[in-house]
Amino acid sequence: MITESLRNVFAIPELRKRLFFTFAMLAVYRVGCFIPSPGVDPTALLELMESLGGGLLGFVNNFTGGSLGRVAIFSLGIMPYITASIILQLLTVVWPYLEKLSKEGEMGRKKITQYTRYLTVVISLVQSTSIAIFLAKTSTPTGAPLVPNAGIGFVLITAITVTTGCAFVMWLGEQISERGIGNGISLIIFAGIVVGTIPAIINTFVKVKDGQIPLLSMIFLSVFMLLVVAFIVYMEKGQRRIPVQYAKRVIGRKVYGGQSTYLPLRVNTGGVIPVIFASSVVMVPTAVLSNWNNSWIQSIVRVLGPGEILYYLAYVVAIIFFCYFYISIIFNPQDVAENMRKHGGFIPGIRPGRRTSDYIDRILTRLTLVGSLYLAAVSVLPGFLLSGVRVGALGSVGQRLDALLPTWVTTGMGIDFFFGGTSLLIVVGVAMDFVQQVESQLVMRNYEGFMKKGRVRGRR
Hints:
There is one protein chain. The chain is mainly alpha-helical. Helices cover 68% and strands 5% of the residues. It is built from 20 helices and 5 strands. A hairpin with a 2-residue loop joins strand 2 and strand 3. The protein is globular. The chain starts with a helix and ends in a 16-residue tail after the last helix. The model is unreliable at 453-460 (pLDDT under 50).
């Protein structure tokens, strides 16, 4: 029973202590998201954020729990740390020094983590300085300045405050990973995304009460969200298990090996990183070009804007590309085949060495295609519900097709999906990982966990 499992969670002193510590650190993070950086007029800032709306700014603001829209001391959240981690992962492939460190075990990983911290501070310093300069030069649509006393002093104070806040958030995440439950960095992103759920739900119910949204549409949205979450859970757990047999080896009087196991290849090996890459590639150019006054450039921005067919096509293509690109970096079939050969392992019916690596690569290529299409579908569907898809950018054929399609297809249902595609993937993935870690703590101490199917039952 779930009630009994929850009772067991709080009955274990160490697990209870870890949970309370995790919740306390997340509470500290949320408090910091409401402490404003000095020098900014909050009324003018609110007016500017409402005029800018979504786009890249809304995407980043969602990840920081709304602190970027308040210019809080935690405005950057944990995004600079994620950026630094991705950069170092990419450099590991092309820089022999980092590649050597990654193969040196625990000491090498600590060294790479240290470099990640340094790079995080550098990135956050650059970003916070850019934010400060932007705020100092920007006014609201009515002409009110965001910073009444703009100057070099404001830029320095804002840069130092926001950079220090980013370093503190990074420290909070590491403390949660070490002394709490779950991955601290993921839980901080999770908290930033989930905190916007309650206002979205309340806003949706208010629209239903006022008659702006039909009750039937609300029921459809609720059922649809449950089906999407169930689909994500199913796909995130999906994997292809390649059987691996280890030959028997006789060393002295002992016999080693001889057991059968499997090599698990996940359907979504790349996780949510390809979606983040694709979002940046699709959103950043339009965000930069939107500041130009050229009519031709503005027409390109409109064609590539959210809700347009070319935007969705570019987004899907970018997700598929980055899925293959990122997986080629983090997973090397040749290294896997070589490690199997060194330990006397082989795939039944496949010759060790190059044949094995080609076999694994072929299976991984097919799984990556399925995983990339799954990520693209989950990422595109929320936008389709909100703003629909317009095909008028395809020329005369698209304009005629746009006129024939139903209104709910071209303009959307006008329903705010509580999570965006990327956010939904992160929320479900982090929640699953958190529950699995609590489950492992319970089973390790001879308690029954949450999961019924396939769990290891503890002894009373």
